[in-house]
Every structure is written in structure tokens, then in C-alpha cells.
Amino acid sequence: MEPLKTMSVVTDSPCPHRHNVNCGDCRMKALCLPLALELDQVEQLDRIIQRGRPYQREEHIYRAGDAFHAVYAVRSGAIKTFAMTDQGVEQVTGFYLPGEIFGMDGIAHTHHISSALALETSAVCEIPFTRLEDLSIALPSLQRHFFQLMSREIINDQRLVALIGKNSADERLATLLMSISTRNAKRNLSELRFRLPMSRADIGNYLGLTVETVSRVFSRFQKQRLLKVDKKEIEILDLGGLQELANV
Amino acid sequence: MEPLKTMSVVTDSPCPHRHNVNCGDCRMKALCLPLALELDQVEQLDRIIQRGRPYQREEHIYRAGDAFHAVYAVRSGAIKTFAMTDQGVEQVTGFYLPGEIFGMDGIAHTHHISSALALETSAVCEIPFTRLEDLSIALPSLQRHFFQLMSREIINDQRLVALIGKNSADERLATLLMSISTRNAKRNLSELRFRLPMSRADIGNYLGLTVETVSRVFSRFQKQRLLKVDKKEIEILDLGGLQELANV
DNA sequence: CGACGCGTTGAATGTTGTCAAACCGAGTGG
DNA sequence: CCACTCGGTTTGACAACATTCAACGCGTCG
Known about the structure:
The structure is a homodimer. By secondary structure, chain A is α+β, with helices and mostly antiparallel strands.
């Protein structure tokens, strides 16, 4: 009876984007901010978090120039963040999957210097930053965890610099695919079959390549039987081969 | 008499690398961690900071694999941070000048994943991280300031990604030179004449270019009368021209 | 149906990397 | 004092990978 009840709770979950989920129930709690917290502390965190209706594809979470007042956690869907260089060229700075935090680059200023938009229908938790700061003083483990999250963001960016600065187009794309694959695995999704939420242009922009090159590399990977590609649907046929190309 | 005394205090400063300087007297206090703090708070910060003898050229401040226990502030000299990719290739992740904080990528883990070494004789303030965390709880403005510092590091890395991913060798080097120039200006040093503390190889590594390309671009800039280059001594002849090439 | 966005493919071009050689200054030792 | 080496830098010739420009295919939506 008990297991049945649990089952039903899991299976009749009506929609992955529903907004009446608190941190304690969220399927991403093991990856996200609550990770470092005790049960009662999660409740305190939960009280400051704001959850609105889901964002539709192409909808902005924030835009460069908006006043900064929160960081965000992805609950479902996928988010891309990007900045404009002074010459008006877009630079994609990241892709964020459920359980991941974005918007930390806004902390340094009073206004956002980059933008964030939903690549598909996405639910997002808004974490008002001044309240997070206050709570971090009450909960040292939250402070520590947030320092670590920001540090991890720095490490990720540095790895991206190395990837773009030192690796070929093949290696760059293989690394991105491996990244998405392993991040999917952590979310109990298939690491071998998934749908890319972003366009070829976004991928190229992120990796410092042109759309044409991205397209060619996908074709090459297919010829080499590393992948099966159908538009945005990806099937990894040779995980080892891809891993060998990627910078782990 | 009063001005004379002040003069003498400034001029007989025996050595820029001396280690018996507290934050309140440090010439970098307006750029560094104390920036956000009141006078008595600076004293509290000062008490947790450790200052050893200066590091010599090529000496490591920490190595990848060392236990992480502190972040660092440059007091004098210049520091380069770098990581090894799994293939054993060095990746330079940053150059740090007086008043700047480095080592924040270590916060995410118990051990450093990158290394830091002195490019020239350098004095460094060591800030034990657990004590900084404790103090951040007592001094909310310190917590805020440190969050902002980390955010700024993220922004810098993202800008580097954009630079390497989207710009030519000329633009990359021009941007680095402009960065050093403006950072020098903030330290009341000449923005038009300075000595690069790092080798051509370091520059190339950092910018995702080969040594040969870096060298060629320096030559090209000289032919175009943008720079006068004598080994590591740089004189900017056409600041506007350089700025135009750089991504501001 | 035609227009449009997105992705793919081809051919030509070019910037940067690779390989090789030479230079230069500093330091060393005969 | 000079010859020597050594690391860092510069320069040249060539090749390669990615970009650019162009065309085309495909699906969607008006």
C-alpha cells in the first residue's frame, strides 16, 4: 500500500513544468541549492523562492539592462544565457539544464549584463538575491554551497576557454555532446539518446564555430558511426569514441 | 612640515614587496577586499590575513593537487594561474596584478585543480578561506563584496570566451594589451608604457594562439605604429587605434 | 502555393598552425 | 676575452582547418 501510494505520487505528476512544487518535493533537490541543507533549512530556503508560470520557448527570463535582483534555478526545460559584445554580436555563455543555477554573472552589478531565455517550455525558480544573502548569514552551509556553486561556474568557464582555445571543431562538439550526455545521466535521463534543446547556430556561437562547421562536424560524426543525428535528436552510437575526442 | 612628513613616508617605503603591511596601509586597499569595509572591519579582516616572505620568480603559490585552504590577493608583482588539461597541456587561466584576488576556482573542491606561480618577485596576501567564511557571516558587506568578486571573475572568463571564440589574433592581443593598460592606470601606473610580466608563450597560451602568431602580431603592430616593442617593454603609440581593435 | 527559418553541402579563400631556421642576450666555461 | 650553450623570440615557407559565400533541401506556416 505504501509503495503504491508513492508510485501514484510519482506517476500522476501532471506536468513537469507545474509551479506548485516546493524544494523538498522537487526532483532536482539533490543537484540544486537544497543539496547542502538539512530538512528544516530547505524549508527556510523554500520560503524565499518564487515560482511563476512556466516560460514559453523564446521567452526571456531577464534581459541585459534589467535590474538585477535574483539568481535562478532551472526546474524543467532548458535555458540559454547570452551577452552582446559592444559590436552587437551575440555571445552564448551557457546552456542550463534542470537543477542548475544561472544568473550569477549579474551579482557583480546592479543590472544584468547578459540575458537569459527559455529554449523550450521551462519552469524556473527565482531566488531573490538579497534574501539569499540574508539567509546565507543564518545558514553557513548555504553560504558555503553558494560560494562553491560560483566557483564551479568559474571552473566551467575556464574549461570552455581551454576547449575553444586549444581544440579542433570535432573535439569541441564532442565535448559539448559528452557534457550534455553526462548531465542527462545525472538526471536519470538517457545518456545515449536525447534531444538537443538549442539550434545549430547556438551551438556554434557557444563553441566559437560557424553554423556550417557545426553542421559539417555532425555529418562527419555520422559517417564515422559515432552518432545518429536526426535534426535535434541525437543518438550516441560510440560513447568511447566520442569520449576519446572530448576533453573529458 | 606635515607634507614633508607625508612625503618621507611615501618615498622611504623600502621595498614594494615588504610583508609587514596591513590592509589599512596597503596601497591597494581601494581595489582589493577592504574596498567594501569600514575602518574597524578592515582591522578584523587584517587579523585573519597571512603575509609571508615574497615569492621569487617561477615560485609556486600553490599547485594543482594541493589542499585548498585559502584565496590570495596580489600585493605586488604579477601572478599567473594555469591548469593542466587531461592530455597534459597547460592552459593559462589568468594574469593577476596588485589588488586582484586569485584562487577562487579552488573553492568548489577540497583540493586545488589549478596552479599559481609568480611571474616576477611578488608579495601575496593569503586569506584562509574558512576564516573568510566566518568573517563573512559577521560582516554582511564582506559577504556581498566577495560574492561580487566571484561574479566579476565569471564575467571576465565569459569575456575571454567571447574574445577567443569570435576575434582574430590581432583583436585578441590588442584586447589583452588594453586590459593591462587600463589595469595599470587604476594603479596609478603609466597606461602607455609598461613591462609585460609574462612570456610570449604565456600570452599565446592565454589567448588561444601559438607563440609564433603572438610574435607576428607584435611585429605587425609595430609596423602599423600602434606599439613600440622592446622585448617585454611595451609603449603604446596609438591608444585609439589599439582600442578600436580591442573589444573594449 | 510561396515565403521563411533552419540545416546541409560544395567550392574557394584565408587566417592561423606547423615545421624549420636563425637571431639575440645572458650566462658559463675554457 | 672569446666560444659556447640555452631559452626565449623572431621570421619564413608551407599546409591545414575553419570561414566565407553560395546554393539547395526540407518542413512549417501564412
